[in-house]
């Protein structure tokens, strides 16, 4: 029977990309990118709502609207009240931003609603061991906040229960290489999994870059990103400007001090402000101990900024910039390799710009609004919610 109204899509997440009420990580980016897309394009026939599964700093009440106009059902400490609001939202389809155990009540409260688990950061045991090797510079302490989870096999009971309830459910990675991690991370086979790309807005190609060589560090200033490595790299390259776009969510873990003159801390930026800075940047610097497919890589390439990184998801750094190898622990041993790679690219600006242009073409082909909508349409058909 043809649908009589728009598809009600519930975006299940633990964060949104709004520093006033939430953390500002990749999961929040994903949630808000989908909400913005469908909220701004009602002709697509999808009505989004966000179901928050962890406490956000929002006013009390059942509903709260995000800046893009999408309603938000905030998490509440009174579980029965929260789940009543979740059930009242009556979605036709769940889009889970990866998976966290805090999502379980939503899956259980809506036992027959078809679901897509948007696989974004599946960590194998090997990935988790690398992350747990992280140390703050000059410290032997292993207890570093904000490292996230390892393999989350807790999803397995949810999938099994879904099968028993005849709920149609799919685990869909953002990019093909993550499919191989699904079984190890989630404890279920990747049966029927299809790729669901990111939604990256392609701004107009930048006409010029900054006159002075410039590098952007785009990400949280939290330990897992190892911003202290980026700061040391900046000290070694006084002829290059470094712009840090991001904020620290764990204030007492690492605080930048004694900034060199070529470093600017701009905090969290979004929208046109961020696009303008990326458009002027020559390079993106990534010093994280772990990444899956970082959205920051895609945003930088969309702005024709080449990547210099110690992570190489999907071969992006080695294809569209420089991959300096992987470094565990505090990462300080990587500084020389980073400095060499950045210096090589800023001394060859035409080559760096060509890498950025090629990267933009790759993003346009693989992670655009069009590619997301085509994949989402196919998934709706397989889940019977067309």
At the third CATH level, what is the topology name of the largest domain? Rossmann fold
User: Quaternary state, please?
Assistant: single chain
Strand order of the largest sheet: 3-4-2-1-5-6-7
> What's the average pLDDT?
91
Percentage of β-strand residues? 15-25%
Number of domains: 2
CATH class of the largest domain: Alpha Beta
Radius of gyration: 21 Å
Number of helical stretches of at least 4 residues: 13
CATH homologous superfamily identity of the largest domain: Glycogen Phosphorylase B
Shape: globular
Helical content (DSSP H or I, runs of 4+): 25-40%
Question: How are helices and strands ordered from N to C?
Answer: EHEEEHEHEHHEHEHEEHEHEHEHHH
CATH architecture of the largest domain: 3-Layer(aba) Sandwich
Uncertain stretches of 5 or more adjacent residues: none
């Amino acid at each position: 029977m043809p649908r009589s109204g728009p598809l009600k899509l519930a975006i299940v997440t633990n964060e949104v990309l709004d520093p006033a009420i939430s953390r500002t990580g990749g999961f929040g980016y994903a949630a808000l990118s989908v909400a913005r897309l469908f909220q701004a394009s009602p002709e697509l026939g999808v009505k989004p709502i966000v179901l928050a599964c962890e406490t956000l700093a929002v006013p009390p009440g059942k509903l709260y609207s995000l800046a893009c106009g999408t309603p938000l059902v905030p998490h509440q400490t009174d579980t029965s009240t929260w789940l009543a609001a979740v059930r009242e939202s009556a979605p036709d389809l769940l889009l889970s931003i990866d998976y966290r155990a805090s999502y379980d009540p939503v899956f259980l409260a809506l036992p027959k609603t078809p679901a897509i688990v948007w696989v974004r950061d599946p960590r194998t045991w090997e990935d988790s061991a690398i992350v747990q090797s992280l140390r703050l510079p000059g410290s032997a302490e292993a207890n570093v906040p904000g490292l996230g989870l390892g393999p989350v096999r807790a999803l397995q009971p949810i999938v099994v229960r879904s099968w028993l309830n005849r709920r149609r459910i799919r685990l869909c990675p953002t990019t093909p290489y993550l499919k191989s991690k699904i079984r190890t991370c989630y404890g279920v086979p990747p049966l029927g999994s299809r790729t669901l790309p990111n939604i990256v807005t392609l701004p107009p190609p930048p006409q010029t870059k900054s006159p002075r060589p410039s590098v952007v560090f785009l990400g949280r200033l939290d330990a897992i990103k190892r911003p202290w490595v980026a700061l040391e790299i900046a000290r070694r390259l006084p002829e290059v400007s470094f712009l840090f776009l991001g904020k620290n969510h764990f204030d007492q873990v690492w605080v930048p001090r004694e900034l060199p003159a070529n470093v600017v801390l701009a905090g969290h930026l979004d929208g046109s402000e961020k696009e303008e800075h990326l458009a002027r940047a020559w390079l993106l610097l990534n010093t994280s101990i772990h990444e899956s497919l970082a959205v920051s890589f895609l945003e930088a390439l969309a702005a024709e900024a080449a990547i210099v990184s110690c992570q190489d998801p999907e071969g992006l750094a080695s294809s569209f910039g420089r991959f300096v190898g992987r470094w565990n622990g505090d990462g300080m041993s990587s500084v020389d390799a980073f400095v060499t790679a950045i210096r090589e690219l800023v001394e060859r600006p035409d080559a760096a710009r060509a890498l950025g242009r090629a990267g933009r073409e790759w993003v346009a082909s693989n992670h655009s609004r069009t590619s997301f909508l085509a994949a989402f349409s196919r998934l709706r058909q397989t889940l019977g919610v067309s």
